[in-house]
Amino acid sequence: MSNTGGELLVKCLLEQGVDTAFGVPGESYLAVLDALYDVPNQIKLITNRHESGTSFAAEAYGKLTGKPGIAFVTRGPGATNASIGVHTAMQNSSPMILFVGQIGRDMRDREAFQEVDYRAFFGTVAKWVTEIDNADRIPELVARAFQVATSGRPGPVVVALPEDMLTDMTDAKPCKPVKPFRPAPDLAAVEQAAQVLNSAKTPLMVVGGGGWDDEGRAQLSAFAHKINVPVATVFRSQDLIDNRGPHFIGDASFGMPPHLRDAITNADVILAVNVRFGEILTDGWTLLNVPNPKQQIIHCHRSADEINKIYQADVAVQSAQDLFLAALNPLVTGDYSAHLKRIKEAHETVLNPKPAKGEVDMAPICAHLRDVLDDDAIITNGAGNFAIWSGRFLKFHKNQRLLGPQSGAMGAGLPAALAAKAVDPTRQVICFAGDGDFQMSSQELGTMLQNGLQPIILVLNNGLYGTIRLHQDKRYAGRPSGTEIINPDFVQLAKAYGFWGARVEKTEDFADAFTTATTKPNGALIELVIDPADIAPNVILQD
Asked: Is residue 180 a part of any domain in this protein?
């Protein structure tokens, strides 16, 4: 049976188990939209209000499920609007496939209406970029896109779809389901890693990256318990380990607490599992000597491209993290309880900052949330200093998840909350947003309303682009410029989209407001009025 290119593409997605896609409609992929019309009960198309919302939602969906988040946008402006989510997926190591409508094949290289060379445009922010010129090759290239997005270090793939190709007829058959490749460890390297770790006195385990699942988290927990090793997570990866347990010592992120800096610099062995030795973890590559640190490095990663990239490891292992930890666990014999206890005591002091200067203090609010959030709640956030509160002062339970942009992309939190609700509408989803951050994607409240996927949103309103103001105050004291913002009535805005809304001006009023918010089936928005002086107390600003 012959199909149009658009019909074949949709059949390929069904074969890959796709049941949700995000998109903004465009004339360049009308044939795909027409094919989706025939399968509304098999693939739910969630129509966003902006292409950035589409790509942010697809990235979060991929991170949460481990399956590629699927996004559809139109050519030119649609694709460039969506680029922010592609960049976020790359830095988050989240599987994602962005399908982009493209000009007709006969119009190339004439600067046609909305023409963009997607290989050039996305080449440095995606794992792979391709264009399907022949409808017969749709199964081949779609299968490859799923393989690339999910294997090794997960990440985003961009597939351009010329509009005339999508209307061509083809007899090609849909591709069969793709099975992601999971590298297994070299057992000799695992034995060498065990020998190095067994001789350690002050080891540190650092974990992060993409491709984690329940099995990987379980292996991590079992390994940490076996030898009582301190475990730090990289930026916005706190949900990899139960924060209430005895081994978690914090996230190595911006404004790194002294106990974490000391743990890194004073470690004799760093067991790095699935992490990139990036700028944030290493404080601008200053905590470890480049390229040969004084600390012995055991580096396991899913992708060979990340091993020995900046720091030369003493032991290098390319492996899926769960397979590596399962192989290493029986070979380790140490017990670092005393070392862990010293670091853990210092970590606990981080959860007790000085009181706020304003009437709303986020520290006790976060303490309250630690007590009342569902055990499987999903926390999302965009970017800004407001996210320090949720990132540092919540304690993620075993089954709680965090969806936040390691790329520092403002506006990511709301679409991520939408994606989390799309995965499971019954699950509690809490979005932390700054006032500036919220307004970069507030139009997605309409998407939430239309699809019945409404989370609880906490908007921290201080009338500032707070992170930038902090940098201004540090470098150009007394000369603020461009960082003050005048905001709308967030409560009224929320009500316009069918949400319940409340404004909290005193800390003691939050608990009742949040309790009420949890009872609202159409979602809720709580505006927290934050004193500008409380942008990020007790946090060391990093250049």
From this structure: no
Q: Is the peptide bond before 355 cis (omega within 30 degrees of 0)?
A: no
For residue 537, what pLDDT is reported?
47
Question: How far is CA 25 from each of CA 36, 331, 422, rounded to the nearest angstrom?
Answer: 12, 54, 19
What single letter denotes the amino acid at residue 220? L
Do the Cβ atoms of 520 and 452 come closer than 8 Å? no
Domain count, the chain: 3
Q: How far apart are CA 354 and CA 347, in angstroms?
A: 15
Q: Is the pLDDT of residue 169 over 80?
A: yes
| Cα-Cα-Cα-Cα dihedral sign, residues 95, 233, 227, 400 | negative
Q: Does the pLDDT of residue 346 top 90, yes or no? A: no
Whole-angstrom CA distances from 446 to 37, 38, 62, 450, 454 are 21, 25, 22, 6, 10
Shared domain check, 365 and 339: no
DSSP 402-430: EE--TT--TT-HHHHHHHHHHH-TTS-EE
Measured distance between the N- and C-terminal CA atoms of the chain, rounded to whole angstroms:
60
H or E stretch covering 96? strand 96-102
What local confidence, expressed as pLDDT, does residue 542 receive?
38
pLDDT reported for residue 535 = 67
CA atoms 418, 421, 425, 427: torsion sign:
negative
Residues 342, 445 share a domain: no
pTM given for the model:
0.96
Q: Quick one: CA dihedral 502, 505, 510, 512, positive or negative?
A: negative
CB 86 within 8 Å of CB 98: yes
Contact between 329 and 226 (Cβ < 8 Å): yes
Give the residue numbers spanning the domain of 304.
Answer: 187-349
User: Which residue, chain included where needed, has tokens 């603020």?
Assistant: 480
Domain boundary among 349, 378, 409: 349
Residue 203: pLDDT band (50, 70, 90) is very high
